[in-house]
Amino acid sequence: MGRVTEIKHPLILHKLAIIRDKNTGSKDFRELLEEIATLMAYEVTRDMAVEDVQVETPVAMATCKMLAGKKLAIVPILRAGMGMVDGILKLIPAAKVGHIGLYRNEETLQPVEYFCKLPKDIEEREVIVVDPMLATGGSAADAITLLKKRGATNIKFVGLVAAPEGVAHLTKAHPDVDIYVAAIDERLNEKGYIVPGLGDAGDRLFGTK
Ligand code: PRP
Ligand code: URA
Where is the Phosphoribosyltransferase domain (predicted)? Predict the structure, then answer.
């Protein structure tokens, strides 16, 4: 069963409180989401493989550790997932970025796919799927199914706010996928919004609606 981790670092909690505020505008929303993504990436990459390297310091030879060079891909679910990509790339600049376009049909709440462009060697890469909102979990589960169909086997999901329903759906659909979020909220409302949540992440990020 995949692990579910709520990353409750004080800096993340503080920034998340501001991002939730309905009076926070798009500029601040964007900057804060990027900053939180960077902070989360630190935790998400904790188990990355390292290997011994020999480094000559000004004083002597030292046996040090460096990343073992396992290839990574960051895959945002459009649109709102885009808001987390640059924050993660700050720490892992060599990662490739794929894109999966999904939107929720507002009546059925079912995800509808409209775009998919992935690195050619996606099956060789560790994949980090990013989307700030895990509500019913339908979008994340479908995006991961699509990635598995393309050959990806090593996948993590990183979000900002989740509903318990979304966590349950995703862990059931993809028990091999570790989930990292900053908060698991109370519930979904009748419109499929996370309560208390932060509203529509894509609209707040891009200033639409
Ligand atoms: C939002 C959000 C997730 C999805 C979560 O996207 O960014 O992708 O809803 O809901 P779910 O867990 O119930 O599937 P939306 O469909 O609003 O598209 P957008 O990012 O383009 O605004
Ligand atoms: N998508 C969002 O952007 N917000 C929610 O609360 C649920 C789905």
Answer: 8-208
